[in-house]
């Protein structure tokens, strides 16, 4: 097997030859070498090389299409946007050129690149004095430089409220956001967004007459866009007038219509009508599919201290189902980890990785909720998680989303009770619910706002020995945090007991599938700082319900396996190519040979752990991952160790090292850069 170093040298040399041939105008040779290069490597340079060769062949439109495709795969790459600006200018598409150069400035990430893009932008303006680029247009394009990321939802990337502004109008993903359970507040801004809940409803903006035929009782969510709107609803010809003072503007109104027949909805100005909800549809075999996500719950910690002792209610509920004892996250923090769980693919494919800049799911990546929505489930998300907002694309597949940033106070108590109220309200509907509990974040973030945790944490553990890290991920070992963490876990478990009891009281064992999982563990649980330790990577994955085996499984499982396993238990299959697979306990022929966990974070080294159970393979680069997420493998180090003894066994396992070196290369080859 060819070594990784020799492979890297070969393709970096091939890239240099392509560049040299382009510079010397040996275009045919450049094309031949690019064909060989791109058969293996699909990095940002490949798109730029191909675009330049198309431009040289007078196919400017082809060059632009190539670079646009490259921007989807490499959304933060300076060279792609810089070349796009050049190409658009060549065909006198001045606005597109300027817009591309603004993105090049945004993603320049170095003063040199920013100055280069700014100079190019100024030249386009000088070269096109007659171009009709208005002052307003220029200001609109400039907004890209100050765009916010997805954490500010329900504020958009341009710092404007999304409240009562329909999004993705005319598409299958159209939705609108309104306030939720608040009487006298009609909107939010960047400063107040955390303090109020919002509700997202999938549907359509409408002013013209809308007609529906129903066979049974339904509910239709309706929201006004203007205070002065009058709405008329006819049910089998009988008129119901909702004048401006009948429906508050700052909420969705759920209009129940019990009588089957024809419904007509009209208004004197635009309104938003949510998708019709059948209250008594044909019941699915799995009437309730519930996914409970607990952020930052370490299964290693639960094992060490006893799941039954730490989470007695959770243990009691899931002991009649499936419990994975060796489930490992594929990414070490929430943003990429949750994206992998919901798509079933590694972060190198979905690329939801940049903590400061916005990038959304590709259309080709189908989210878990979409599978259930297509099957007729009413899909609801109740979450305070600022890393899984609709701005990132998490609206895909959901009919209803309740959100308030966790720092605004929406904790597990509210989420569990919102969940129960939803199930009570739509008790005969087929429900898919995904709920997120972020209470454990209080510990690394050093927040003290839960009565139970404060009352049960002794004074000796109220003063932290080590300060919070630059992020919660970077927080180091602290005995006081460990004690507080245990109490927060017990608190969440106690609150979840209410939900467990409700499910068992209202659903038969064959009517539900309930999953509990996490995205990562914690680094502050042990001495030494290791983002690839079991305390960080080992997470709970539990299931109970229809088609779920009763077993404590020892097999190796990854968090990308959660999606196909839930689908399998509900009689569904993934229709996209994913990295996840179904565990043997659920019917797969073979167990996983190993788990794969990677850290791709700007300004950190790229790191990998491949775990076989008894031994682990570790990989780390010498150079940092850049802000555009590109990775330089030059000078990397890799080794094999025994998990129990931590003894290095690389020398006697050289073939296995080469095997895993190659596996890492295959995972990151499309994100490679050849310069430091």
UniProtKB/TrEMBL annotation:
Residues 289-569 form the Sulfatase N-terminal domain. Transmembrane segments: none annotated. Pfam families: Sulfatase. It comes from the Bacteria. GO terms for molecular function: arylsulfatase activity. Coiled coil: none annotated. PANTHER family: ARYLSULFATASE (PTHR42693:SF33), ARYLSULFATASE FAMILY MEMBER (PTHR42693). Belongs to the sulfatase family. This is Sulfatase N-terminal domain-containing protein. It comes from Sporosarcina ureilytica.
């Amino acid at each position: 097997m060819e070594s990784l170093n020799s492979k890297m040298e070969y393709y970096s040399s091939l890239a240099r030859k392509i560049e040299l041939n382009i510079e010397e105008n040996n275009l045919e040779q450049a094309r031949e070498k690019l064909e060989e290069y791109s058969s293996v490597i699909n990095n940002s340079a490949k798109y730029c090389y191909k675009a330049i060769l198309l431009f040289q062949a007078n196919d400017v439109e082809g060059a632009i299409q190539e670079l646009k495709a490259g921007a989807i795969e490499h959304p933060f790459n300076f060279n792609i946007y810089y070349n796009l600006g050049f190409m658009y200018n060549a065909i006198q598409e001045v606005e597109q050129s300027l817009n591309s150069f603004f993105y090049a400035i945004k993603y320049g990430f170095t003063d040199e690149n920013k100055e280069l893009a700014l100079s190019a932008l100024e030249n386009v303006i000088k070269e096109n004095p007659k171009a009709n680029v208005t002052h307003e247009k220029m200001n609109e394009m400039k907004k890209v430089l100050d765009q916010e990321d997805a954490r500010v939802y329900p504020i958009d990337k341009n710092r404007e409220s999304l409240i009562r502004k329909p999004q993705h109008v005319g598409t299958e993903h159209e939705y609108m956001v309104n306030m939720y359970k608040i009487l006298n507040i009609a909107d939010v801004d960047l400063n107040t967004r955390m303090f109020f809940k919002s509700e997202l409803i999938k549907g359509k903006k409408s002013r013209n007459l809308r007609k529906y035929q129903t066979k049974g009782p339904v509910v239709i969510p309706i929201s006004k866009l203007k205070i002065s709107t009058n709405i008329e609803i006819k049910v089998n010809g009988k008129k119901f007038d909702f004048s401006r003072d009948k429906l508050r503007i700052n909420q969705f109104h759920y209009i129940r219509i019990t009588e089957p027949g024809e419904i007509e909805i009209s208004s004197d100005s635009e309104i938003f009508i949510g998708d019709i909800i059948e209250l008594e549809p044909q019941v699915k075999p799995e009437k309730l599919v519930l996914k409970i996500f607990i952020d930052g719950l370490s299964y290693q910690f639960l094992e060490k201290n006893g799941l039954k002792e730490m989470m007695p209610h959770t243990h009691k509920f899931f002991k009649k189902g499936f419990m994975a004892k060796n489930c490992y996250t594929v990414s070490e923090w929430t943003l990429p980890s949750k994206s992998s769980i919901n798509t079933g693919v590694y972060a190198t494919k979905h690329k939801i990785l940049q903590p400061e800049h916005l990038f959304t799911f590709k259309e080709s990546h189908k989210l878990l909720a979409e599978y259930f929505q297509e099957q007729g489930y009413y899909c609801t998300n109740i979450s305070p998680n600022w890393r899984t907002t609709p701005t990132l694309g998490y609206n895909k597949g959901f009919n209803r989303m309740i959100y308030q940033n966790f720092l605004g106070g929406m904790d597990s108590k509210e989420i569990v009770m919102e969940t129960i109220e939803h199930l009570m309200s739509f008790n005969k509907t087929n429900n898919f619910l995904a709920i997120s509990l972020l209470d454990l974040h209080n510990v690394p973030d050093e927040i003290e706002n839960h009565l139970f945790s404060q009352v049960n944490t002794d004074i000796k553990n109220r003063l932290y020995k080590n300060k919070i890290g630059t992020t919660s991920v970077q927080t180091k070992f602290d005995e006081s945090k460990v004690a507080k963490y245990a109490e927060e876990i017990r608190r969440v478990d106690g609150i979840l007991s209410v939900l467990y009891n409700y499910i068992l009281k209202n659903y038969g064992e064959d009517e539900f599938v309930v999953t509990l999982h996490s995205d990562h563990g914690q680094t502050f649980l042990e001495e030494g700082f290791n983002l690839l330790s079991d305390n960080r990577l080992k997470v709970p994955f539990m299931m109970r319900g229809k088609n779920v085996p009763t077993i404590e499984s020892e097999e190796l499982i990854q968090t990308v396996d959660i999606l196909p396993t839930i689908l399998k238990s509900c009689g569904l299959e993934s229709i996209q190519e994913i990295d996840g697979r179904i565990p043997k306990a659920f019917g797969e022929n073979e167990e996983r040979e190993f788990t794969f966990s990677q850290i791709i974070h700007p300004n950190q080294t790229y790191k990998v752990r491949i775990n076989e159970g008894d031994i682990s393979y570790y990989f780390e680069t010498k150079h940092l991952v850049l802000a555009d997420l590109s990775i330089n493998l030059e000078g990397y180090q890799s080794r094999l160790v025994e998990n129990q003894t931590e003894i290095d066994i690389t020398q006697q396992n050289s073939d296995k090292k080469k095997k895993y070196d190659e596996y890492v290369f295959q995972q990151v080859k499309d994100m490679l850069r050849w310069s430091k």
